[in-house]
């Protein structure tokens, strides 16, 4: 079981965000979600090691065959890869 970090928000949307701690686009995605008042769970994959890192990569590959960052999984039904502000706003209804 992966240990995600959590940020509270106002809207009942479940977002799992797979990021790298050094990725500028990942930081922009987190900032946008916070600006929109959207709560999210995130994990910085580059800060993981061993089995936990492998498990995170396997989870990402279910949604994103390139295993690139950020990978945003919304309500376990939709995935947005990369920083795509318009798509993200549309997906969360803002």
Topology diagram in text:
Layout lengths: L4 E3 L7 E5 L4 H13 L3 E5 L5 H14 L7 E4 L3 E4 L3 H7 L3
Parallel strand pairs: 2-3
Antiparallel strand pairs: 1-3, 2-4, 4-5
Q: Could you explain how this protein is built, in words?
A:
The chain has 94 residues and is an alpha+beta fold. It has one domain (5-89): Glutaredoxin (3-Layer(aba) Sandwich). It has three helices and five strands. It has helices at 24-36, 50-63, 85-91; strands at residues 5-7, 15-19, 40-44, 71-74, 78-81. The protein has a five-stranded mixed β-sheet with strand order 1-3-2-4-5, with helices on both faces. Strand 2, helix 1 (24-36) and strand 3 form a beta-alpha-beta unit. The chain is globular and about 35 Å long. The termini are far apart. The relative contact order is 0.25.
**Beta-strand proportion:** 15-25%
Separation of the first and last Cα atoms: 31 Å
Rg (C-alpha, Å): 12 Å
Number of strands: 5
The helix-and-strand class reads alpha+beta
CATH topology type: Glutaredoxin
Output the helix-strand order.
EEHEHEEH
Number of helices: 3
State the domain count.
1
Give the proportion of residues in helices: 25-40%
Strand order of the largest sheet: 1-3-2-4-5
CATH superfamily: Glutaredoxin
CATH architecture: 3-Layer(aba) Sandwich
